[in-house]
Amino acid sequence: MLQSSFWSNPLVESAGYFSVVILCLLVSMVIFEIVTKYNNWEEIRKGNVAVALATGGKIFGICNIFRYSIEQHNSLFQMVGWGLFGFTLLIIAYWLFEFLTPTFNVDQEIENDNRSIGFISLVISVGLSFVIGASIS
């Protein structure tokens, strides 16, 4: 009885969701690090605002997708599964952005601190996270 009430305590549930989402966010950022042709954290350390904008958009987008997933799914496994599915769609959106801009290379422009491209990347990640989130809920 005590063990059951412990796991259903809202504080414990919140801490559990928070911990799992942080882990998923870290894994997602490692995958984004592999997908991009530049080193996100090294570029941010050097003051590259375009990379910071693009990376911030990815972080917001991932967290927003998991927010929707937490709201709509009762089990931790469902939440993680749908959240990771949403993250996969966000990666596909990133590749589509690169594909739909054949006149320039998105990764190269962001690495060169083209802030307008970094900002558009942020808006794409954030905007599509709402669409993805709504579709997985």
Describe the structure.
- The chain is mainly α.
- It has one domain.
- It is 83% helix and 0% strand.
- The protein has 7 helices and no strands.
- It starts with a helix and ends with a helix.
- The model has no long low-confidence stretch (mean pLDDT 92).
Outline the fold blueprint.
Layout (H helix, E strand, L loop, with lengths): L1 H6 L2 H26 L4 H6 L3 H24 L3 H24 L6 H6 L3 H22 L1
Helix pairs in contact: 2-4, 2-5, 4-5, 4-7, 5-7
Strand content: under 5%
Evaluate the radius of gyration: 17 Å
Oligomer: single chain
Number of strands: 0
Share of helical residues: over 70%
Structural class: mainly alpha
Main beta sheet strand tally, sense and closure = none
Distance between the termini: 32 Å
Number of domains: 1
- The low-confidence parts are none
General form: elongated
Question: What do the pLDDT scores average to?
Answer: 92
DSSP helical segment count = 7
Compressed to H and E, one letter per element, the order equals HHHHHHH
